[in-house]
Amino acid sequence: MGLIVLESVIIAFSVLSIIPFADYLIDTDLNNPSKYTILLTNFLISINIEAGYLVFASIFVLSNLLRSFINLLIKYRVLKIKFSIQKSFANEILNKIFISKWTFFNSLSYGKIFNTFTKEIDFIGSASRSIGDVFSSFISIFTFIAIPIFIEPKMTLIIIISCIFLGLPFLILTKTSKKLGKERTEAGNKYYAKLTETIQSAKLIMGFGLGKKQTNINFNLLDDYFSKDLKSQFVNLVSIYLFKPLAIILLIMIFGSSFDLQNVPSYAAIFWSLYGALPLLGHVFNTAVVINNYQPSYNQIDEIIKRADKYIERNGEIKISNINDDIVFKNIKFSFEEKEVLKDLNLTIKKNKITVLVGESGSGKTTIMDLLMSLQKKDSGQILINGNDIESLDLKEFRKLVGYVPQDPVLFFSSIKANMMWPKENLNSNEIQEALKLANAYDFIMQFPKKLETLVGEKGTEISGGQRQRIALARAIVRKPKLLILDEPTSSVDLETQKLIKDSLIKISKFATIVITTHEKTTMEIADEIFEISQGKSNLLKSI
User: How many structural domains are present in the chain?
Assistant: First the structure.
């Protein structure tokens, strides 16, 4: 606020400084100077400076340079606010997402999320910057207008009222701007959804030799997105680039109708002051258009945040540090999109044993896994852990006891060591080696030239599927989980890797309860118990 006030003071001085400068240019002897010239000349004499062209010009130039410097500092502050708002939105969305239930992602396009983070938040930042610029300009506008009113009130008021009427038609653009902003946001969602899908499916696309086809699909969506964005941004520019020249024409016409040769210095100050105010007034009108243009961006951000709030995960209060007993599923019912998936399911997962779930695709095996991690919420029944229903547990503490390896294990685009340290940052080298050896991954890693510093590529694509599976298993057990959950851990690996993973699981079961979904008979061989999941219920097939 202090900078804005300082800028206004300097604006007033820079505008008034043109009067003595103009007086001197008209009459170097200053025979008929204005009162402002007399005041400045007397001040200069009091400090032993002789008034002249160089002095008046220097005062005028330096005051305007100082004004520009202060304005630059204000713009920097506004930019900081813009980026702070963008960071705040990004941080809020991420935080909300990761305290939501997994169902938050159901039927939500990843493209919509990526577009929100990459573009829509930036648009909101731009809108906030425009608002910040307008706010910082209000005192400047007041100063620019106050001086002409003080010098020539009647003419100045005519100009101000005329400029306001000139600017009102531009506000009609707000409705069009909002419509174009919505079309741009929707086109961006479609483009980023397809781009995400394309990158994730690159291997499939290349395997089918359909790269050109997929490129054309993406390009058409991008072309549509840019076309809508171009229209949207063009509307934002109309008021900025049309208001000022039209207002200058208006200014010249009014000046021409009442110009007085006897008051050239004062008229020069008035013109200079109003000329400085015009871009700021144009920016005020433009901001109304920009806010409406970017309102769909805010609506999308707000929609995601509200969706996350709707699916917020309710946390229990009971903290556990171990799994002391069997895990019991008791009369569990679960539905998804009005389809009943589990029907009065009863299942006991024995402590420190290997329990295998088998069944057809869509039978509910993965749902049981999700319920066991509390990623999904049951409709009714109980999942008892240490005798407590899972919904009464502090989930953050409970999940510290869980290791998870999904069917398609994801490694982060980093080194093997960084992937291993992701679930538990304060690991030492011995703990990493122990987990890798237990997962039968240590020997092949030591054969890599960079060993643990080897980069695994995007999702681990720089190493083989079997190697990726074993590193994922090592990462899951590095923090010594009490419950290890594996979804089809041997479905995409060769027989040798299957055997190595089976050997690892047998060793791990000595200190952890293991739950596996599989179709592989070789994996079933190591099971202590096998349950078939069919028609939403469980049937015990094997028990040792």
Answer: 2
